[in-house]
Design goal:
single chain; alpha+beta; two-stranded antiparallel sheet
């Protein structure tokens, strides 16, 4: 442990790379929604009533506090996420140091920090990094239940994790049951009860429609057809294994080496993989970032492997594991140089052509956030998921336009924007308002009551059309 402070210092230096070019990419639709809702909440709008939201309240409450201090400075929001990424890496270091030595813990922390999913999520103001930090903090305390305060802290962090993402409740319950059985500590049951109660309160606070909307984005409960889901699920597993092979390769190699034993994390890892795969299977949307929690389990079994190795081979194997991950799934460092200022330019144009009190309804919340223009009740609720389920449709949008006196409407109509996102080359295409099945009905309404104010396009990027009310 005598070198721990040097390893921690090295982690901070390496982490600082994630602070480079924080404003390079501004099309992450979920983040845009969170930023808009945070800004609206800081100005007095009530979440879930004045502005609809599909996520638990934690990210909006924190975002509201940031907005009151820093305004619409997106760097402040993204650096908050980056700090959470660093804190999670430090927690990983302290957790794994209990399992192996300080060098092994340092390698495990680098495995986390340089994972492509973590690298990207720690650069965006999204719920994923919040959930991962809170769950990891819970695990840090629950791994040692010899002191009552650790059980209390672990339970509190578990309950807070539930307020970050709805699916966190399943992970939290699973993790606490694991430590309950591993440490034979019945007092953890109170933590489970606390988390379930907080989850229930979180749901009740949102109202029926938004709870249904939250889950319908992921799972259409009325139409779960196993046969229909099997094909897309298998295709996704093949895709994820190609793009992000470490999720499967490391457990497949390490678990046979450490063997399935109750004293290590082999059973925990296998169970967590199965739980995550089941959640992905029933989901209507499949993204590699849904495997985020498996990064922690992969690191724990790596620490188990390093614990049983002897002498100099331990450090050699640890280094080989890190190098292997960097070769197979390097962090997307091209994020550090990517730059697209289209959103800011369009937002500035809209702002310069608007008067105080004008309402803007845009495909992405970024435009409201950067232009500092008031949005609508659905400005932070428009998403590919809600469009796909039909909750956001032409009738709903027209109703909002009429009832909330929308002056400007901005729609992403054509074109894609490619971006290095985690282990993928991601792209954004028109999948919000333009993606509605009854979009022609909205277009007909706009032709009657709005005029095209401007069209924003370039040769390689997306096309946005700005409409202004004419009558």
């Amino acid at each position: 442990m005598k070198y721990s402070k040097y390893y921690i210092f090295a982690l901070i230096i390496i982490w600082s790379v994630t602070l480079i070019n924080p404003e390079g990419f501004l099309y992450e639709d979920d983040e845009g929604a969170y930023l808009y809702i945070s800004a609206a909440a800081s100005q007095g709008s009530r979440i879930y009533s004045d502005v609809l939201a599909a996520k638990p309240p934690m990210i909006f409450l924190l975002g509201s506090a940031i907005y009151k201090i820093a305004g619409n400075n997106i760097v402040a929001f993204r650096y908050t996420a980056s700090v959470l990424g660093l804190l999670t890496a430090l927690l990983v270091f302290f957790i794994t140091r209990k399992i192996c030595d300080s060098f092994g813990a340092f390698i495990c922390s680098l495995l986390f920090l340089l994972d492509p999913i973590v690298f990207t999520q720690a650069r965006l103001f999204r719920t994923d990094i919040f959930m991962l930090f809170l769950i990891t903090a819970s695990m840090y305390f629950l791994s040692d239940t010899s002191r009552t305060k650790n059980i209390i802290y672990g339970s509190v962090f578990s309950a807070l994790a539930v307020l970050s993402r709805d699916n966190a409740v399943l992970y939290v319950i699973f993790i606490m049951v694991f430590y309950l059985l591993k440490n034979r500590e019945k007092r953890i049951i109170f933590g489970i009860i606390l988390s379930v109660c907080v989850f229930a309160i979180s749901l009740l606070s949102r109202g029926e429609n938004q709870v249904i909307g939250s889950f319908s984005q992921q799972v259409n409960i009325s139409d779960i057809n196993i046969l229909q889901k099997t094909g897309p699920f298998i295709d996704f597993l093949v895709y994820m294994t190609k793009k992000y092979p470490v999720w499967l390769l490391f457990p497949a190699l390490i678990i046979p080496a450490i063997r399935i034993k109750s004293e290590n994390h082999s059973i925990f890892t296998i169970s967590m993989i199965l739980l995550t795969l089941i959640m992905i299977f029933v989901s209507d949307s499949h993204y590699i970032r849904y495997a985020l929690i498996l990064i922690i389990t992969r690191i724990l079994i790596t620490a188990d492997l390093l614990r049983i190795l002897q002498g100099r081979y331990r450090n050699i194997i640890a280094s080989v594991i890190l190098i292997t991950q960097l070769i197979l799934n390097p962090p997307p460092v091209s994020e550090l140089t990517f730059r697209d200022d289209t959103v800011k330019q369009i937002a500035a144009y809209i702002r310069s052509n608007a008067t105080h009190g004008d309402i803007l309804l845009a495909d992405y919340g970024y435009f409201n956030f950067h232009s500092q223009m008031k949005g609508t009740s659905i400005s932070g609720y428009i998403s590919g998921g809600n469009v796909k389920t039909g909750e956001i449709n032409a009738d709903k949008v027209i109703e909002v336009i009429q009832n909330e006196n929308v002056k400007f409407l901005l729609i992403h109509t054509n074109g894609r924007l490619y971006y290095p996102y985690g282990s993928e080359l991601y792209y954004y295409e028109p999948h919000h308002l333009k993606g509605m099945k009854d979009y022609p009905k909205l277009q007909e309404y706009l032709n009657k009551h709005f005029t095209v104010k401007n069209t924003f396009a370039d040769e390689k990027g997306p096309v946005f059309v700005l409409y202004e009310r004419s009558n």
